[in-house]
Protein backbone atom coordinates (compact mmCIF):
# COMPACT_ATOMS: atom_id res chain seq x y z
CA UNK A 1 0.00 0.00 0.00
CA UNK A 2 1.56 3.29 -1.03
CA UNK A 3 0.99 6.71 0.42
CA UNK A 4 -0.15 9.51 -1.82
CA UNK A 5 2.20 12.44 -1.59
CA UNK A 6 1.25 15.98 -2.60
CA UNK A 7 3.32 17.50 -5.39
CA UNK A 8 4.45 21.08 -5.70
CA UNK A 9 3.16 22.66 -2.48
CA UNK A 10 4.24 21.40 0.94
CA UNK A 11 1.92 23.53 3.06
CA UNK A 12 -0.83 26.06 2.40
CA UNK A 13 -2.72 28.39 4.74
CA UNK A 14 -5.62 28.58 2.31
CA UNK A 15 -8.37 26.28 3.67
CA UNK A 16 -9.84 25.86 0.15
CA UNK A 17 -6.53 24.81 -1.43
CA UNK A 18 -6.69 21.50 -3.27
CA UNK A 19 -3.47 19.50 -3.25
CA UNK A 20 -2.37 17.67 -6.37
CA UNK A 21 -1.19 14.12 -5.83
CA UNK A 22 1.15 11.88 -7.79
CA UNK A 23 -0.68 8.90 -9.19
CA UNK A 24 1.44 5.77 -9.14
CA UNK A 25 0.56 3.48 -11.99
CA UNK A 26 -0.14 -0.05 -10.81
CA UNK A 27 1.67 -2.59 -12.94
CA UNK A 28 -0.76 -4.50 -15.12
CA UNK A 29 -0.53 -8.24 -14.61
CA UNK A 30 0.43 -10.17 -17.71
CA UNK A 31 -1.49 -13.33 -18.51
CA UNK A 32 0.26 -16.52 -17.35
CA UNK A 33 1.27 -17.64 -20.84
CA UNK A 34 3.20 -14.38 -21.36
CA UNK A 35 4.98 -14.43 -17.98
CA UNK A 36 8.65 -15.40 -18.05
CA UNK A 37 9.31 -16.88 -14.61
CA UNK A 38 12.62 -18.30 -13.40
CA UNK A 39 12.66 -20.90 -10.62
CA UNK A 40 15.92 -21.47 -8.75
CA UNK A 41 17.22 -22.88 -5.49
CA UNK A 42 19.22 -20.49 -3.31
CA UNK A 43 21.24 -21.01 -0.18
CA UNK A 44 23.10 -17.70 -0.08
CA UNK A 45 22.20 -15.12 2.59
CA UNK A 46 19.71 -17.48 4.22
CA UNK A 47 21.72 -18.80 7.14
CA UNK A 48 22.44 -22.10 5.40
CA UNK A 49 18.75 -22.79 4.77
CA UNK A 50 17.55 -23.78 1.33
CA UNK A 51 14.86 -21.74 -0.42
CA UNK A 52 13.14 -22.01 -3.78
CA UNK A 53 12.92 -18.60 -5.47
CA UNK A 54 10.55 -17.67 -8.30
CA UNK A 55 11.71 -14.49 -10.07
CA UNK A 56 10.38 -12.40 -12.92
CA UNK A 57 6.70 -11.95 -12.04
CA UNK A 58 5.26 -8.90 -13.81
CA UNK A 59 2.05 -7.53 -12.38
CA UNK A 60 0.15 -6.12 -9.45
CA UNK A 61 1.30 -6.81 -5.92
CA UNK A 62 -2.05 -8.41 -5.04
CA UNK A 63 -1.67 -10.92 -7.87
CA UNK A 64 1.87 -11.70 -6.70
CA UNK A 65 0.61 -12.27 -3.15
CA UNK A 66 -2.20 -14.54 -4.40
CA UNK A 67 0.20 -16.64 -6.50
CA UNK A 68 2.62 -16.90 -3.56
CA UNK A 69 -0.16 -17.99 -1.21
CA UNK A 70 -1.29 -20.66 -3.67
CA UNK A 71 2.25 -22.00 -4.12
CA UNK A 72 2.94 -22.01 -0.36
CA UNK A 73 -0.34 -23.83 0.31
CA UNK A 74 0.24 -26.47 -2.38
CA UNK A 75 3.84 -27.03 -1.23
CA UNK A 76 2.84 -27.10 2.44
CA UNK A 77 5.57 -24.67 3.47
CA UNK A 78 6.05 -21.05 4.38
CA UNK A 79 7.59 -18.25 2.43
CA UNK A 80 7.15 -14.67 1.33
CA UNK A 81 6.55 -12.51 -1.73
CA UNK A 82 7.78 -9.02 -2.54
CA UNK A 83 9.17 -7.00 -5.43
CA UNK A 84 8.27 -9.53 -8.13
CA UNK A 85 9.90 -12.41 -6.27
CA UNK A 86 8.35 -15.37 -4.44
CA UNK A 87 10.41 -17.24 -1.83
CA UNK A 88 9.28 -20.74 -0.83
CA UNK A 89 11.00 -22.41 2.11
CA UNK A 90 12.79 -25.65 1.30
CA UNK A 91 13.94 -27.35 -1.87
CA UNK A 92 10.67 -27.41 -3.83
CA UNK A 93 11.86 -26.55 -7.34
CA UNK A 94 10.35 -29.55 -9.14
CA UNK A 95 7.01 -29.19 -7.39
CA UNK A 96 6.85 -25.42 -8.02
CA UNK A 97 7.69 -25.83 -11.72
CA UNK A 98 4.99 -28.51 -12.06
CA UNK A 99 2.41 -26.30 -10.33
CA UNK A 100 3.27 -23.25 -12.43
CA UNK A 101 3.03 -25.22 -15.68
CA UNK A 102 -0.36 -26.58 -14.59
CA UNK A 103 -1.54 -22.99 -14.02
CA UNK A 104 -0.52 -21.96 -17.54
CA UNK A 105 2.89 -20.40 -16.96
CA UNK A 106 4.46 -21.98 -20.04
CA UNK A 107 7.85 -20.21 -20.03
CA UNK A 108 8.89 -21.54 -16.62
CA UNK A 109 12.49 -22.72 -16.36
Q: How are the SSEs placed, and which strands pair?
A:
Blueprint: E1 6-7, E2 20-21, E3 38-42, E4 51-55, H1 61-75, E5 79-82, E6 85-89, H2 93-102
Antiparallel strand pairs: 1-2, 3-4, 4-6, 5-6
What does this structure look like?
The chain is an alpha+beta fold. It has helices at residues 61-75, 93-102; strands spanning 6-7, 20-21, 38-42, 51-55, 79-82, 85-89. The protein starts with 5 loop residues before the first strand and ends in a 7-residue tail after the last helix. A hairpin with a 2-residue loop joins strand 5 (79-82) and strand 6. The chain is built from 2 helices and 6 strands; from the N terminus they run E-E-E-E-H-E-E-H. The chain is 23% helix and 21% strand. The chain has a domain at 27-102: Translation Initiation Factor Eif1 (2-Layer Sandwich). The strands form 2 sheets. It has a 4-stranded antiparallel β-sheet, with helices on one face. Strands 1-2 form a two-stranded antiparallel sheet.
Which short descriptors sum up this protein?
2 helices, elongated, 4-stranded antiparallel sheet, 109 residues, alpha+beta
**Which term fits the overall shape?**
elongated
CATH superfamily of the domain at 27-102, by name, is SUI1-like domain
Distance between the termini: 31 Å
- Taken as a percent bin, the fraction of beta residues is 15-25%
| Total strand segments | 6
**What series of H and E elements makes up the topology?**
EEEEHEEH
Q: Tell me about the biggest sheet?
A: 4 strands, antiparallel
- Taking all residues together, what is the mean pLDDT? 86
Strand order of the largest sheet: 3-4-6-5
Helix % is 10-25%
Oligomer: single chain
Low-pLDDT residue intervals, each spanning 5 or more residues: none
State Rg.
19 Å
Quickly count the helices: 2
**Based on helices, strands and strand pairing, what is the structural class?**
alpha+beta
CATH topology of the domain at 27-102: Translation Initiation Factor Eif1
CATH architecture of the domain at 27-102: 2-Layer Sandwich
CATH class of the domain at 27-102: Alpha Beta
Amino acid sequence: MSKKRPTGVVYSTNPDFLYQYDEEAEAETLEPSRQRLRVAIERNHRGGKTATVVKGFVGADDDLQNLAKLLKTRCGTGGSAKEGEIIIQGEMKDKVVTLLKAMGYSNTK
